[in-house]
Amino acid sequence: MNDEQFNAMVDSIQEQVFEDAKDAYGVVGFDRWRNPRFHGRMEDADVQGRITGSCGDTMEMFLKIEEDRVTDASYATDGCGSSNVCGSFAAEIAIGKTVEEIFDLTGEDVLNKIGQFPEQEEHCAYLAIKTVQDAVNNYMVKKVQSS
Ligand code: FES
Predict the structure, then answer these.
(1) What is this structure's pTM?
(2) What band does 11 get if pLDDT is binned at 50, 70 and 90?
(3) Which of 46, 67, 104, 127 could form a Cys-Cys staple with 53, CB 3.0–4.6 A?
(4) Site to substitute for ligand 1 among 50, 82, 84, most atoms within 8 A of C-beta
């Protein structure tokens, strides 16, 4: 196989991967899959949460919280594309919410925001929200300990 044939093969595989992702996540989710906003460990976070799901993937959430309201959020995961999409939306949903509002969230909120998601991977959305709640829980503990 020459270089041109090899490149054509790579392009065709990539196109197929993109098509599959579009089919799985819809337009909104696909866009986030390609550009996972809020991704990365936040070095100066006030608190963080970390949960390993039953699938074996670990999700981490990093939050900045001022006067009981989340002002910034980011996530990191060693999981698949679906956990990245869910982590990204969970971080976005958390920003601007009070700690009480965070405890009212469920994976459904993430799934509704994406609009379309593979049923067999919906647990990623629940893991992402549980991790945000774990971070907020750590915030509450810290707050009690420092008062
Ligand atoms: Fe494990 Fe999505 S979090 S498959």
Answers:
(1) 0.91
(2) confident
(3) 127
(4) 82
In a domain, 78, yes or no: yes
Q: Which domain holds residue 40?
A: 33-140
The number of folded domains in the chain is 1
Residue 27 covered by a domain: no
Residue 79 CB less than 6 A away from ligand 1: yes
The CATH number for 57's domain is 3.90.1010.10
8 Å CB contact between 52 and 144: no
Confirm whether 6 is domain-assigned.
no
Ligand 1 pocket member 121 (CB < 6 A): yes
Query: Which of 21-25, 38-42, 121-125 is predicted with the least confidence, judged by mean pLDDT?
Result: 21-25
Q: How many CA atoms lie within 13 A of 11 on its CB side?
A: 6
